[in-house]
Design a protein that fits this description.
InterPro entries: DSBA-like_thioredoxin_dom (IPR001853), GST_Kappa/NadH (IPR051924), GSTK (IPR044088), Thioredoxin-like_sf (IPR036249). One of its GO terms (molecular function) is glutathione peroxidase activity. It catalyses: RX + glutathione = an S-substituted glutathione + a halide anion + H(+). The chain is an alpha+beta fold. It has a domain at 101-312: Glutaredoxin. The protein is built from 13 helices and 7 strands. The strands form 2 sheets. The protein has a 4-stranded mixed beta sheet with strand order 5-4-6-7, sandwiched between helices.
C-alpha cells in the first residue's frame, strides 16, 4: 500500500498543494496522453519537492505547515497529513530534551520525609522536563553543622510528626509507618553506615542507587528494621537487585577513605546551598540554584521549572 506524502507542485509562477503517493513523484513529470517516443518533455516545467520529516530539523517542517494552504492541514486524525504534523511536533519536543533543568535531590534514608519527596520526584521524572540527580548526604552532619534539632525532641512536635507522617504516607501513597522507638532509631543508631554504603553504590554501581535507597527506606520506615548492621545492609542490597558478591564488595568499599570523603563532600555541598535539614531540592534555573526544603515544596518546584503540578500521584488522565 502506498503512503501519501504532501508535495508542492510548482506550475509556472504559481504554487498549489497536492497530496501525492510516495511513488507518484516521477509520474508528475510524465506528459499526459500518448506522445511519440521522441517527445518525452513534460508539458510544463513541473518540479516535485518531497517534504519529509527529518528529526534534526522538525522546526523546518512546522514552518512549512504554518505557511501551507489550508487544504494541506485538513484531514482526518489518522491521515498522513496529521501524522506528519504530529511527528514534527514530537521532533521539536525531542530536540528540547537537551534543555532539561537540573534538579538535585539531597536525602538521607534516615529521613522519612525524604522518602516521600524521593518517590514523588521519581513519578514526575518522565513528566517534567528535568534532569533528576539523587545526592545522598549525611543528615547528622547537616544537623550538627547548622545547630538544628530533630522535631521529635520537642514533645508537641513529636506528637504532631507521628500523625503527620501517617497522613502524608496515605496522601503520597508511600508505605511509610512511624518506627516504635523514634529517638533510639534516629538519634542513637543514626544512618552513617547506611549512607556510606549508599554513597559507595552511587560511586561504583549508580544504576542501583535508586532501588538500594528505596529498600533501605522500606526496612526502617515500613518494616521498622535495622539499617546499620552489615547483614541488614546486605539484605537490602540483594532485594534491590545486587548480587551478594557485589553487595559485599560495596560494603567493604563503604569504609574506604574515598567513600567517606565523597559523603562528606556531598554533605558540604548541600550546606553551601543553604541546607539545614532534609529533604532538600536544588533547582537550577537560568544558571541560578534555588533551594527548597521539605517534601511539601514540590508544587513550588514545579512552578520554578515552569511545569504543571498534578498532585503527588500524577496519572495520565491529568495530563
Amino acid at each position: 500500500m502506498e503512503m501519501g506524502l504532501e508535495r508542492v507542485v510548482a506550475t509556472g509562477g504559481r504554487q498549489r498543494a497536492a497530496s501525492l503517493p510516495l511513488s507518484s513523484c516521477d509520474s508528475a513529470l510524465e506528459p499526459k496522453g500518448r506522445r511519440s517516443p521522441g517527445d518525452l518533455r513534460p508539458s510544463r516545467a513541473r518540479r516535485c519537492f518531497s517534504v519529509e520529516v527529518q528529526p534534526p530539523f522538525p522546526h523546518l517542517m512546522l514552518a512549512f505547515l504554518a505557511r501551507a494552504p489550508r487544504p494541506l492541514l485538513s484531514g482526518s486524525a489518522g491521515s498522513p497529513r496529521r501524522a506528519m504534523a504530529a511527528a514534527a511536533r514530537q521532533g521539536l519536543r525531542s530536540s528540547s530534551s537537551s534543555s532539561k533543568k537540573l534538579v538535585e535531590c539531597f536525602y538521607d534514608v534516615l529521613s522519612p520525609y525524604s522518602w516521600l519527596g524521593f518517590e514523588v520526584l521519581c513519578r514526575y521524572r518522565p513528566i517534567w522536563n528535568m534532569e533528576l540527580r539523587f545526592r545522598p548526604v549525611f543528615l547528622g552532619g547537616i544537623m550538627h553543622s547548622t545547630g538544628n534539632r530533630a522535631p521529635a525532641l520537642v514533645p508537641k512536635k513529636g506528637e504532631y510528626m507521628t500523625k503527620d507522617l501517617l497522613r502524608m504516607a496515605k496522601f503520597y501513597q508511600v508505605p511509610l509507618h512511624p518506627v516504635k522507638d523514634f529517638l533510639g532509631t534516629v538519634l542513637e543508631k543514626g544512618s552513617l553506615k547506611a549512607m556510606r554504603f549508599v554513597t559507595a553504590v552511587d560511586m561504583a554501581e549508580p544504576q542501583f542507587l535508586e532501588p538500594v535507597s528505596r529498600e533501605l527506606w522500606m526496612r526502617i520506615w515500613s518494616r521498622d528494621e535495622d539499617i546499620n548492621q552489615p547483614e541488614s545492609i546486605l539484605a537490602a542490597a540483594e532485594r534491590a537487585g545486587l548480587s551478594l558478591d557485589q553487595a559485599r564488595k560495596l560494603l567493604e568499599m563503604s569504609s574506604s577513605p574515598e567513600v567517606k570523603n565523597r559523603l562528606k563532600a556531598t554533605t558540604d555541598e548541600a550546606l553551601k546551598y543553604g541546607a539545614f535539614g532534609l529533604p532538600c531540592f536544588v533547582a537550577h534555573v537560568n544558571e541560578e540554584p534555588h533551594l527548597l526544603f521539605g517534601s511539601d515544596r514540590l508544587e513550588l518546584l514545579g512552578h520554578l521549572l515552569g511545569e504543571k503540578w498534578l498532585g503527588p500521584v500524577p496519572t495520565s488522565s491529568k495530563l
